[in-house]
Amino acid sequence: MGTWIAPSIIERQLYEAKTADDWPAYFDALARAELFVPQSRAYLDQHPNAVYLQPVRFPQAGSAPCFVAYTAGMLPAPTPDQVFSRHSLSWFAHRIDPGDPPYLAVNPGSPCEAFLPSSPADREVWKFHWNRATEYGLKENTVHALHVGGPLHGPAAFGLACGAHLSVRNGLFWNALGYHGEGYTKEREKLRDWWGVTTREQWLATTERLLAADMVSSVWEFTLRIRVALAKEFAGPVDTEHWRHAAEATLRANAERAAEPRITPDGVTTARPRSKAEIEGEVAGVQRVIGRITRYEQRFRADGILGEDRYVRSVEAWDYGRASQMARWGLGARFGTVEEAEEAVVRAGRMCRLAYRSWEDLSAGFVLGRCLQFDEEEYGHWYTDMAAVHQALTTDPGSPWLNLPWNQSDR
């Protein structure tokens, strides 16, 4: 048992407490942990707000019936028929009734297992530890990894690291490819409420759109690419006014070309003259975007997201990073398989490597995309959370960004 590698910090804390025979510490760790109960997917589909606790007998408990719960690091790879619901030690303390099994089996079959008596007096102890716990679940804005059961190297790990902003923000294992998230029902609810995804077909279509960077604003990307072209042409930093003039000139030239008839293999394409108001509106809109980007970049530099002479090349990372996460979210909701999720994650990593030059480069693009979509220059939690996440991912010794080289091979 001394050589056992705990899957995550959760199981390591339980194991160390058990090994030291420090049961108060074990209960403290358990009170902070999310506890997952095996469920039939068919049952939850019919009863989404119910939980069926199936008693199981274990020789370690004298073959007495037990309710079973697993911590997040002990969950098996997702399968089509078995899913999990997420609960807490407090939930069990209030849920168990007289006549229910006399034990709660935690992580049975592992070195950190425990078969906890569930008498009313014992459950009062559970409540005591729950009430003094300072947090529930893994700490947010912190890097957490699976040391067993999740890729730490290779293309899948790289693709997962490209979506690590949201994993770290939400206190999830960045490398959990066999993803269960917050449990089957909750993962379905999140996809429905945030993305309008309720079917496998919608999940597949959404994932493909993200992998094609088809959801990020084309106006943002157009604006940034103008500056990238100028930087290449003039081999150096681009003055903001130069950027503004070039963007306006490009928009007006594009409008003139659209107004001219063109000969194509299909014949003559009819010109579509555009009104002056439409063109002026586009120019004004892009100028506003340039102003917003410039101000965000100034804040990024002050907060260490961008280097002093650096700028954001593209916001496609906003889609690619979410594509990496969407692959896992769909698996947690059982809209896809582990193999499909891994394929999408690897593709997301490849697209990121084509679009960016470093983890910091990618991060600035992701954060800018998120801010342009949600923050409205308020510098509220949409921004401050990402600033904290960037700091964690660029400084934590366990961060994939410090352990996976950007130019690693796909093999």
What does it look like?
By secondary structure, the chain is an alpha+beta fold. The chain has three domains: 124 residues, no CATH class; 150 residues, no CATH class; 70 residues, no CATH class. It is 53% helix and 9% strand. The protein contains 17 helices and eight strands. The strands form two sheets. Strands 1, 2, 3, 4, 5 and 6 form a six-stranded mixed β-sheet that branches. A two-stranded antiparallel ribbon has the order 7-8. A hairpin with a 7-residue loop joins strand 5 and strand 6. Helix 10 crosses helix 11, helix 13 packs antiparallel against helix 14 and helix 15 packs antiparallel against helix 16. The longest helix has 27 residues.
Quick recap:
The chain has helices spanning 9-19, 23-32, 41-46, 89-95, 120-132, 155-162, 164-169, 184-195, 200-211, 218-234, 240-258, 276-302, 317-332, 338-355, 359-374, 381-395, 400-403; strands spanning 35-40, 56-57, 65-71, 82-87, 103-106, 114-117, 262-264, 267-269. By secondary structure, the chain is of the alpha+beta class. It folds into 3 domains: 9-132, no CATH class; 155-216 and 316-403, no CATH class; 218-259 and 275-302, no CATH class.
